[in-house]
Amino acid sequence: MLKKLNLPAQAKIFEAGCGTGGNLSLLSQYGQVYAMELNNTAREFARQNTEAKIWAGSLPDDIPFEKEQFDLIVLFDVLEHLEKDSQALQSLRTYLKPSGYLFITVPALPLLWSEHDERHHHYRRYLKKDLRQLVKNAGFKVTLASYFNCLLFPMVLAARYLHRFSKKTHDDLTLPASWLNGLLKTIFASERYLLNVMSLPIGVSLILLARKSL
Prior knowledge:
alpha/beta, seven-stranded mixed sheet, 7 helices, transferase, methyltransferase activity
């Protein structure tokens, strides 16, 4: 997906909410990366494992880059953690260069709401139409919006409802067997080819790409 954005050779990229820095190495292949993370432990871990510039900060009101503007801003599974998601997007818009890109992923479909979301301090899961409108209202032009993790959706839906009606507490930090984990990763990764040619009709997550409206 990033390869198709036609970013400048020395693009300036900002990841808002980088966590432990799992995406920074990939993003650094496309330009100079700046990042922001509120959690002290996660931020220090990220600093030890990357050359990206990482500062403390939070959305919507504590962004530590007053004089910077970026070619690309990414929020990977961040927006659902923010009570003021609209204000966060409006704040980020001021940090984008003219026609700069905004790249978002979020959990999808309120019907999938579960103990997992509560444990991870989510405020919401999104419908595609609602996410599109939210981003549009914040001053962006949406160029792509699609569900993803579509192929595994039936399995996830069934698991969520089984856990919902079960008396047992589900530990979603437990990894599946290595062979199953590898299979799931392969299925998930295969969807990138589908996203290159079509918008997926349903899925566990949403991906959205937008540009700053002039």
